[in-house]
Amino acid sequence: MLLTADLILQFQRCSRRAFLDTHGDPQIQDPRSDYLSKIIKDSQLHRRQVLNGYTSDRIAYPPGDWHRGAQATQAAMAQGVAHIENGVLLVTTDSGITLLSRPDLLTRYPGQSTWGNWCYALTNIKLGKRPKLEYQLAIAFDAYVLATLQGEEVPTAGLILREKGWYEVDLDRVQPQMEATLAACIETLQAEEAPAVFIARNRCGLCPWLSHCYEIAQAEAHLSLLPGVTPNRYAQLKLLGLTTVEALATSSVASLEMLPGFGPEVAEKMVRQAQATLHGRAIARIVRTFNLHREIPTAGIELYFDIEAEPDMNLAYLLGVLAVDRAAGQHQFHALLAETPEEEGQVWQKFLDLVGRYPHAPIFHFCPYEATTIKRLGELYNTPESQIEPILHRCVDLHDRTVRTVTLPVESYALKSIARWLGFTWRDSDATGAQAVCWYGNWLATGDRTHLTAITRYNEDDCWAMYHLKNWLIEFLSPALAHTA
Ligand code: SF4
């Protein structure tokens, strides 16, 4: 069995992922998305830029021939080369497991090692901005392999993070955790069957096994497909024998609210979510203080606002506004697009002019991002607060209004999931915010305008999805709230 730092990293995220990466059929993996390709490319570029700052020897070996790579690396370390990049470290444990480490940079330090009065320290270069635990466990694994080879503790191990720079990993603190993770990972990989599926959006989104796992989860009507069921909460539900949507839907709130991580609100929400999913229908949450017409206003002219942004550049490059004139039965979509990053300020000004033309129109958006970006751009371009405040006052977050007032038979309260349940379809079914980031990068790199057309169409459809959601909320909630008045 071959164990790598990357496998430890994946295991930390999801034990099933490590198992499938080792034993799964690569034929059934999802094709790599453009967004994942972009992350990998950006990561390689970042690594190259950092390594260019060092005068180092690069180890060369045929792709995948770890033994040749390890021999060349050991020869370089035995010579005492100051900086070694692309090194390969191989160690076989007493139980016959091969540990493969590929640190980004090995740096010679004073010390006593197998090779003489020097030893090596480790550096890994990461695209992330935070020293995530999974990065620290991975470098602790590298340190374990290196220490075994050089017969000397690793003097220092650190991460070079994007923007944040050097972060020294406290090996004394992380090493015991890494050893426990390593043991658990070996146990999982030696098991006959893969760990059970648990779909968690934040970790499964970019996983190549998603379609495979999702199919299983759907066939089992797995509780992880219910919004709000986290791994910890699922573990608690399992202890009560509640592993199906039906069982949860017929549970009493009182039986759940004492569970760790629940409380009355979560318990009530979860039972209601299971009921909505089981019966495939929306359930109104009767909030007596909710004033429908104030919280989700209907006006002669309404604006639906959605931003496309490039997070790495901190750039809001498309401010899309759908203006709906309910009175005249007309609409117009405004794609305020920065064709170059330098145009963001002009686009911002156009946005201010546009929303200024409709001073009484509510501005619907989905999630807080649009409102926080209005604040950020206002500060960045010195827009007077007296101009920003009234705009923010007109903003209506439809995600907030949705989760406060209804429970829907959906797997997530993302706009896509909700609007699709309402029957809305995007013209480009594969488009996502992440894909739009790739399209914008491609536009900047190639000047091919089809990428801009695709982004604009996707953004407009997001605005239309919000429009349909808003109409549906009013239609669905009006009778329910009238009944309680
Ligand atoms: S899709 Fe999710 S559950 Fe399946 S292997 Fe990947 S991360 Fe794990």
Largest sheet: 6 strands, mixed
Bound molecules: iron/sulfur cluster
Shape: globular
Strand-residue proportion: 15-25%
What is the typical, i.e. mean, pLDDT? Answer: 95
Count of extended strands: 16
Main sheet: which strands, in order across? 2-3-6-7-8-9
Which structural class should the secondary elements be placed in? alpha/beta
Radius of gyration of CA atoms, rounded to a whole number: 27 Å
The count of helical stretches stands at 20
Could you name the ranges where pLDDT drops below 50 across 5 or more consecutive residues? none
Our measurement of the CA-to-CA distance between the termini, rounded to an integer number of angstroms, reads: 67 Å
Helical fraction: 40-55%
Question: How would you describe this protein?
Answer:
The protein has 485 residues and is α/β, with parallel strands linked by helices. It is 50% helix and 17% strand. A six-stranded mixed β-sheet has the order 2-3-6-7-8-9. The chain has a five-stranded mixed β-sheet with strand order 13-12-11-14-15, with helices on both faces. It has a three-stranded mixed β-sheet with strand order 1-5-4, sandwiched between helices. α1 crosses α2 and α15 packs antiparallel against α16 (385-394). The mean pLDDT is 95. Residues 14, 16-17, 20, 197-199, 203-204, 207, 209-210, 213 line the site of iron/sulfur cluster.
List keywords for this structure.
binds iron/sulfur cluster; 485 residues; 5-stranded mixed sheet; 16 strands
